[in-house]
Structures are given as structure tokens and as C-alpha cells.
Amino acid sequence: MTYSPLIVVAEDDIATCQSIAGILEKAGFTTECCQNGLEALKVIKKRPVDLVVTDFHMPEMDGLELLKTARGSGIRIPFIIITAYGCVDTTYKALELGASAFLTKPIDAEAIVTKTKNVLYPGKQTKPLNCLQDEICPEFHGVNIIGTSQKMKKAYQYISKSAESEASVLITGESGTGKELAAKAIHYNGKRKNGPFIAVNCSVFSQGTLESELFGHVKGAFTDAVSDRRGRFELANKGTLFIDEIGDMPIDIQVKMLRVFQEKQFERVGGEASLFSDFRLIAATNKDLKKRIESGQFREDLYYRVNVIHIHMPPLRERMPDIPALIEYFLNAYNGIYRKHIKTLSLDALKALQKSTWRGNVRQLKNVIESAVAMCEGNMIDVEHLPPEILDTEAHPICTDILTTDILAFASLPEAVAVFEEQMIRRALKTHNGIKTHAARALGIAERGLSYKMKKYGIHPH
User: Fold this and answer.
1) What stretch(es) of the chain map to CATH 1.10.8.60?
2) What is the per-residue DSSP string for 58-122?
3) What is the rounded average pLDDT for all residues in the chain?
4) Model confidence over 372-403: pLDDT tens digits?
5) C or N: which end of the chain has fewer Cβ atoms within 10 Å?
6) Is the pTM of this model over 0.85?
7) The CATH fold of domain 317-457
8) Which residues have CB under 8 Å from 137's CB, separation 6+?
């Protein structure tokens, strides 16, 4: 008789719990459903369980507390954590406790089966990048770096290749475009994924403080140095060091960086012992480093040391076709956080979002949708739920002839997105006289993808 691994599914929503259990049972596993962490804990203490799949938010005992209690009791069963929205701080706590993988709601059947097999049968499954969704941070699937536009596809390709490499990476782009998330995607899909991801932002520290943050210090090195402290270089050993806003790094510290990046050796502030750290360097900036080199604010030799692989994260205004998918993702995510069931946006609300210049890029869009979800009491977001800065923004006439049908005010979000997409395609083809190559380029998608969508919506070139 073939052994079927037993999986405990802990989820307070009965329908979701039974759905997950059904998916896993179809894949050949045995399951047992529990409505909270306390029930799950009783089961895993009583029976030999192979895996626990648990929701993060549950009454009485949540997923993190269940994991913590299990580890405290000496139980080493692997855990898969399910959450409605990826929180990096919480994720790191779960990682420290030994969580094996993470999933984001709404649950994708293929994803949960694949990750279950990866956890139970390590080494036997292939684990694709899958549009940068990462087990460590569910944000990678949709927050800031979701999109199918040509510019985002190019970014994905560079991120994927960078993950396979150990070369230094420089990520450029405006604030809010997802530079740190791209860095994390590289780290957690690369060879150092089991090592630490250590980040430091050069723009938030004074020169003296930044040096201590990077190099560490010994007791008595300066007035507040009451004990020895490890710096980010040491903490990043066997992992990745992410230096954000490297363009703001003081020139004096830049000189010291060259030796560290080249030899991986350094001394703590006030110390004499030479230390070694094996880290992979990823840097990011929203500045034009070549202009800063010309003005003497950035060292040219450091630039070439950092810029081995260059990835550019495009601003949202250059990837407008991705907005509907981003809205849909954020709406689903914040419905989970705020326990709401908002299905769509009104015509006027969609128009207002489409007209915004989005100077804050995807981060701003994310905040706008969170604010709207928090303010909305019904099942449809209207203009009154949007933040004032969106309504006060000067119109950006990119899609002024789109969203002209009242069907959007009554449709579900997927239906609204479909109408939005169809009208964008029709407008592009009309503008470019039915030439698919030119229309596809204007839409930021591949010509093959355009042909597929034209067939889907019954659109003829002319």
C-alpha cells in the first residue's frame, strides 16, 4: 500500500479550508482540516503529521503562534504559511522559526500543490521564477513588480538572469518603482536564498552613522559605542547586501567601499582586526550616477565596480497597460486585510485613476487602493473613496477615450479589466491604421500577445 502524506490544513474560513484540502487530496495527499491553531496543535501532538498548511490570521492562535509553539515543543514538521498580503517583518519572523514556504490568497491550486511537493520532496521538483513570485515575500507576485508590458518583461528577464549569477547588480529607477523588491527577487531566487538579505539605505543616515552601520564598531570607538556591534557587511555573510540609494553615499565612504567590494575585507570603526565577509552586492539608486560622477559626487571606479549588471525599473507612466492588473491585485490583497468584499470600481473612480500622473509610481497606486478599501463600506469603490491628491491631480490624457461605457459601474473587476483592455486594443489599432506591429508596440505588449487578445475579443485589424 502506498503511503499518503498527512497534511493538516489550519484555516478559520471553512470554505477556504475545505477547498485547500480538496486540492491537496486530488494531488494524492491525506488531509485534516482545523479551524484555528489550537485545533491544529492538538492534531500534530497526537498524530504523525508530515506538513502543516496554515493561514496566518486565525482566532485563538494564529499561524505564527502555532509555528512558534510547535517549534518550542520540539516539533519539526515543515510549515507552509498562507497570508492575504506579504509582510516582510512577519515573514522574517516566520523564517526564523523555520517556515518552509509561503503562499498568498487567493490560493492558486497549481501553486499550492507545487510548493507542497517542493517541501515534502525537496530536490525532486523544479521551482520556476513564475513572474517573480517568491516564497519568502508574497509581495513579489503582484505588489510593485506585477505586469506584462514589454518594459516589465525586460526587467523580469534581467532579474531572472541576475538570480542565476553572482555578479554585482545596480538597479535604477524612480522612487516607488520596486527596486528593493527586485533585489529581493534576485536574492530569494538565487544561490544565496538560504542566506540573509541585509538592506541599508544610504539616504537615511548621516556620514558617521552610515559608516558604523556598514562596517560595525568596537566598544569605545565613539561616545555612544558602549559595546561591540556588527555592521551590515558582517551580517550579510553568505547572503546578499542590498545598498539602497547608493547615489547618496558620502564620497569619503565611497573610497572605503572599493576595498570591501573587491576583497570582501574591512575593519570595524575603531578596530584593528581585519574581517572577511562573503556577500553578494546589489545596489539601487533613483539618481543619475553618470551625472553625479561628472559633478564629483560619485566615484567612477566605484560605479564600474557596482554596475556589472544593470536593471532599470520603469515608472508607472511608462507601463500604463499594467494598471488594471495592479488595481485588481491590490484590491484582492486589501480585501483580505480589511475583511471586505469589494468587487469593482465605479466608472468615475477608474477614470480618475487612469488620469493620474502617478508621480509616486506603483507605491502610490498601492497606497491609493488601500485607502479606498479602508474608506469603502459597500462592494464598489467610488470617487468619494479616493484620496484627495488623486482627485486634485491634473488630468494626464493618456486614455481619455477609454472607459466610456457604463457597464464598468456594474461589472466585477475582471469584467471591468476586460472591457478596459478591449477598448485600449481597439483604440491602438485605430490610431495605427490596423498595423498590429505598431499597435503592439504602443500597448507595450508582444505582437503575438496582441493577436491572441484580438482573437479573444473578436477584434479585426481594420
Assistant:
1) 317-457
2) -SSS-HHHHHHHHHHTT----EEEEESS--HHHHHHHHHHT--EEEESSPPHHHHHHHHHHHHST
3) 82
4) 999 999 888 999 999 988 876 544 333 434 44
5) N
6) no
7) Helicase, Ruva Protein; domain 3 (1.10.8)
8) 86, 88, 91, 102, 181, 184, 188
